[in-house]
Batch of 4 targets.
Target 1
Amino acid sequence: MPQIVREADVIVVGAGLSGLQAAVSVHSAGLSCLVLEARDRVGGKTWSVDFGGGVTDLGAAWINSTNQSKMYALAKRFELELMVQNTQGDIVYSDLDGSVHRFGYGGIPDSGVRFG
């Protein structure tokens, strides 16, 4: 049964990456903290699911040590499993009408829209 907390120095709303970092910072400062999350999981926009033997990221695609150095350091600190981002092959996406498209990694999908 979950622990019922009736009082805390700080309440953090949301258990996404920012909320979890806020909770770590509050705890490190010696204060009590309660994290409230509407979903049945942590991670916010960072969420990976297994679709028939293949893992798909829903939300944030990746973190790295260059552009997201604080999040990367936090993941390493908590010994989270990290995977190398695939940068080879094709990207596949499903459009709003259900059609499936593919294009090479690093490219831009041809949407038929022309600018300029």
Target 2
Amino acid sequence: MTKKDYELIADVISHTKSHYITNNEPVRQKDDLFLATLEVLADELAERLQIDNPRFDFERFMTACGFELSQ
């Protein structure tokens, strides 16, 4: 896969996330669950992309997907 592919995937995840957020706050409780599921999906995908390409930047991908990594 190329950088362009990674950017496309992250953009789709980020765009999907934005549909479920109003003023940076989840709208309903089910949206909290959806957002958590979306984050797990992005995380699992990033882990597998990193296996595919050792130079893959996990943190950059997650940020591009719209998720902050906790320290």
Target 3
Amino acid sequence: METRFRSIIKAMTWRVGGLVVTTAVAWVVTQRADVAVSIGVADTLLKIVAYYGHERLWLRIRYGCLPPPDYEV
């Protein structure tokens, strides 16, 4: 089972890469660093929240999960 803290850390590390990519694409399209950074930051904040919610929701859904073993070695 994942903790909420782990889900938050996963979401943030994933979004660091997304921030870099989104900001780079926005800069190429707009040729303005200030606009590119604004787009990158807004996109990142929104997607961190969305990813966290998605992860937590899927932890409640049992679809496709195998039952835990009766014992572990």
Target 4
Amino acid sequence: METQKLTILGELPDLNTIIAASKQHWAKYHAFKKRYTDYVALVAKMQLQPITESPVSISFDWYCKDKRKDKDNLSAGKKFILDGLIEAGILEGDGWKQISELHDTFRVDSQNPRIEITIHESN
């Protein structure tokens, strides 16, 4: 498998935003989660090919607009990313059989916040 790279422009909701949404009515939270999962799936379909070999290692490079949010708060967006990759048909699943490792790095890019996801074949 060749290494594949996905770029998601902007930022995804952080953990505090996700928790706040989940405390509202269940239907509002469902719509909230669906909106971001569908967005990732759409972008993934345009940039990636389905993964046929498992497991894979996935690296997340979080380019944030500033350092106001904690890293663990920001990385909660992985849920939308992995679910979006499954919805798009890129990954078969996000269990231990399909994913061996998840890696995070964090940087600041105030002019171009984004998330760069790199999918590698596991060794």
